[in-house]
Amino acid sequence: MILDTCSKVAVCVAQTGETYACATDESLLRGMLRLGRKGIPAGCVNGGCGVCKVRIVEGRVHALGPVSRAHVSADEECTGMTLACRVAPACAVTLEVAGRLSRPFSRGPAAAASPQSTQMNQRGDERWV
User: What is the pLDDT of residue 81?
Assistant: First the structure.
């Protein structure tokens, strides 16, 4: 049995209206992957590739690590742009997907992923069951 002690907040994808729960110590990208959408580019998941670019429209996020200036300039960051793999929500968030990440979301809302479709292993990594 896995005990989840971290608080979760709602994250809304502005383009589709889809909402997912994301822990305050979990990257926006990791939570987004649970939506069950095919084609969400996860890339390197540590800020080096830039494929998970988003713009925070409402709410606040906190950094899980540095965001590469090669992918998000200081000017872009001032407008709310960041990498979904490098930030976690501090409260409820509305975000807009950008760049290559926007393609899987251009087809409207996806069928919801089953809450039992994934579970965490002992390292904290999700696996399909």
Answer: 96
Spell out the residues 6+ positions from residue 78 whose beta carbon is closer than 8 angstroms to its own: none
**Where in the sequence is the domain holding 39, given as residue range(s)?**
8-106
Q: What is the CATH number of the domain that holds 28?
A: 3.10.20.30
The predicted-structure confidence for 1-22, as pLDDT tens digits, reads as follows 566 567 999 999 999 999 999 9
**Interior CA angle at 22 toward 20 and 26, to 5°?**
145
Task: Give Cβ neighbours of residue 110 (< 8 Å, ≥ 6 apart).
Answer: 16, 18, 35, 36, 37, 38
| Domain count along the chain | 1
Neighbouring CB atoms inside 10 A of 61's CB total 23
